[in-house]
């Protein structure tokens, strides 16, 4: 069982929001700025707690700061792990036009 300390270590960055709407908003902002959205489901080889993902905007991180999005549906997390490095499927699934 994870200790509270271990959970705290995995909860990184600032909280951007919750669920698919927050994920959609981040991807939209990143693409509009000319960046490439990155979604990480694990840190240190372990899945993030609270159905969270860490997002970053490659190439435009100063304009669109990344952080943590909680409450992401498990099917999105699982698919993101299968499609490492591919963000277009997620953009299409969430209806983000880039």
Which class best fits the helix and strand makeup?
A: alpha+beta
- Biggest sheet layout: 4 strands, mixed
Written as H for each helix and E for each strand, in order along the chain, the element string is: HEHEEEEEHH
Count of all domains: 1
Low-pLDDT segments: 1-11
Mean pLDDT over the full residue set: 88
Shape: globular
| Total count of strands | 6
Describe the structure concisely.
This protein has 4 helices and 6 strands, in the order αβαβββββαα. The chain has one domain. About 25% of the residues are buried.
Word description of this protein:
The protein has 98 residues and is an alpha+beta fold. It has one domain. The protein is 39% helix and 23% strand. It contains four helices and six strands; from the N terminus they run αβαβββββαα. The chain has a four-stranded mixed beta sheet. Strands 3-4 form a two-stranded antiparallel sheet. Strand 5 and strand 6 form a beta hairpin. The longest helix is centred in the N-terminal third of the chain and has 15 residues. It is globular, with a radius of gyration of 13 Å. The chain starts with a helix and ends with a helix.
């Amino acid at each position: 069982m994870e200790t509270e300390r271990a959970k705290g270590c995995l909860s990184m960055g600032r909280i951007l929001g919750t669920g698919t709407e927050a994920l959609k908003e981040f991807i939209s902002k990143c693409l509009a700025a000319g960046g490439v959205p990155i979604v990480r489901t694990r840190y240190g080889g372990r899945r993030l707690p609270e159905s969270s993902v860490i997002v970053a905007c490659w190439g435009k991180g100063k304009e669109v700061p990344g952080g943590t999005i909680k409450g992401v549906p498990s099917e999105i997390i699982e698919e993101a792990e299968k499609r490492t490095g591919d963000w277009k499927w997620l953009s299409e699934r969430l209806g983000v036009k880039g």
